[in-house]
Specification:
Elements (H helix, E strand, L loop, with lengths): L13 E2 L5 E7 L2 E8 L13 E7 L1 E6 L2 E6 L3 E4 L7 E5 L4 E8 L4
Antiparallel strand pairs: 1-2, 2-3, 3-9, 4-7, 4-9, 5-6, 5-8
């Protein structure tokens, strides 16, 4: 079995057009991302990208079109892509870190 270590501590933080801090690494057919959001972030638009991963640190509220879900450290998050599941995150703690894995062609 071959294992692969992703050196996230060596990667620089980047900022998405919507203001989310992230580190990303693509290997094989997968893209691994660590996202960081704070209460100061006011997501300017509805996100329609799909996400699958875990909340590593903090509490986050994700507003969907018509409902709000709350997640905390250790919770899994699975959001299908598309208009039907458009969403906006909002940090409920000082800092929220999430890790997501996606197909490299769709991330």
């Amino acid at each position: 079995m071959t294992t692969y270590r992703v050196p996230f501590e060596d990667l620089p933080w980047q900022t998405s057009p919507t203001g989310v801090l992230f580190k990303a690494h693509t290997f094989g057919g997968s893209r691994l991302r660590i996202l960081e959001i704070t209460p100061a972030l006011v997501h300017p638009q509805w996100c329609v990208a799909g996400h699958a991963g875990y909340v590593l640190e903090g509490d986050v509220e994700i507003e969907f079109d018509g409902r709000v879900e709350r997640y905390r450290a250790g919770d899994g998050v699975v959001i299908p892509a598309g208009e039907a599941d458009r969403h906006r995150p909002r940090a409920l703690s000082e800092r929220v870190r999430l890790v997501f894995v996606a197909d490299a062609t769709s991330a």
